[in-house]
Amino acid sequence: MPDTQPQGLPTIRTIAMPADTNPAGDIFGGWLMSQMDLAAGSVAALTARGRSATIAVEGMKFHRPVKVGDEVSLYAEIVSIGRTSMRINVEAWRRQRDSETTQKVTEATFTFVALDDEGGARPVIDQG
Ligand SMILES: CC(C)(COP(=O)(O)OP(=O)(O)OC[C@H]1O[C@@H](n2cnc3c(N)ncnc32)[C@H](O)[C@@H]1OP(=O)(O)O)[C@@H](O)C(=O)NCCC(=O)NCCS
């Protein structure tokens, strides 16, 4: 059964380039994780209306490889908001550049903490 692609616009859409490969020539998992962190960070900053930082990543799963030239779309959405933290689910989907078929490649739940000017945790102000 195919995965269901999230509705709406992705938070980030990018192209996997040769510079992002591992020594075997496939896309490096760390590159994909950084894209996911960027997407979650964008949602966190908007939700917290300011600075925030990753404190944890749970359930990171690599379902399928990403190939050079793939269009990679990152979908990030808030799952829950705590006092100072935000849990954000992120899915990455690939589309081979010459095909309309899309596949989910990774997913994880990122926890971000809203930060004050000194880098300490501060309450999240959800202005929804
Ligand atoms: C973010 C930071 C300031 C928080 O410090 P802290 O005040 O000691 O954090 P706390 O223990 O009070 O936890 C803050 C929130 O994170 C949550 N949290 C803490 N550890 C967690 C974990 N392992 N998983 C999920 N949530 C966690 C807490 O439950 C709390 O949430 P809440 O206020 O909504 O209830 C500090 O951990 C830090 O600077 N970390 C480094 C962040 C960073 O540099 N990230 C980039 C990595 S390269």
UniProtKB/TrEMBL annotation:
GO terms for molecular function: fatty acyl-CoA hydrolase activity. The keyword Hydrolase applies. InterPro entries: Cytosol_ACT, HOTDOG_ACOT, HotDog_dom_sf, Thioestr_dom. Pfam families: 4HBT. Residues 6-118 form the HotDog ACOT-type domain. The keyword Hydrolase applies. Keywords: Hydrolase. Belongs to the acyl coenzyme A hydrolase family. It comes from Paracoccus aurantius. Its EC number is 3.1.2.20. PANTHER family: ACYL COENZYME A THIOESTER HYDROLASE (PTHR11049), ACYL-COA THIOESTER HYDROLASE YCIA (PTHR11049:SF5). This is Acyl-CoA thioesterase. It comes from the Bacteria.
